[in-house]
Structure to design on (141 residues):
């Protein structure tokens, strides 16, 4: 039950965060972005459960950006291509794949993943009494 509450709380915080980013950036959002944001937050938040704290934060953010981009592609294929909801369209963006993901947004996800990883780690520390976060920006020999 504790894991359900923890993951539900984190899912909700990241879902709301994703929607707020969209509202600030685009002026509107869609309920599916709450779900996608929650899933992305849970996935990048689990990085420190799989990799050591000693992995540089920029590398964690790179992995997070890949995770977000893949999830965005899958979600886009469902909500935009299969269901026709037209939540977003990157067709005019450079280096896009089926208009669902593109290089410029993958770079943005890299930046946002930094904040998401740190936010998740501190939420786990403050709300759930998990290990205090610590970060490095370079590989240790």
């Amino acid at each position: 039950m504790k894991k359900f509450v923890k993951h539900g709380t984190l899912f909700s915080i990241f879902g709301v965060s994703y929607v707020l980013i969209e509202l600030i950036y685009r002026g509107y959002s869609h309920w599916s972005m709450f779900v996608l944001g929650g899933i992305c937050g849970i996935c990048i938040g689990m990085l420190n459960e799989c990799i050591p704290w000693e992995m540089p934060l920029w590398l964690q953010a790179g992995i997070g950006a890949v995770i977000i981009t893949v999830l965005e592609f899958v979600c886009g294929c469902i909500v935009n291509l299969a269901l026709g909801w037209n939540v977003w369209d990157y067709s005019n963006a450079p280096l896009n794949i089926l208009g669902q993901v593109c290089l410029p947004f993958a770079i943005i996800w890299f930046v946002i993943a930094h904040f998401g990883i740190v936010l998740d780690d501190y939420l786990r520390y403050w709300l759930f009494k998990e290990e205090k976060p610590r970060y490095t920006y370079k590989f240790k020999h």
User: Anything to note?
Assistant: The first strand starts at residue 96 and ends at 97.
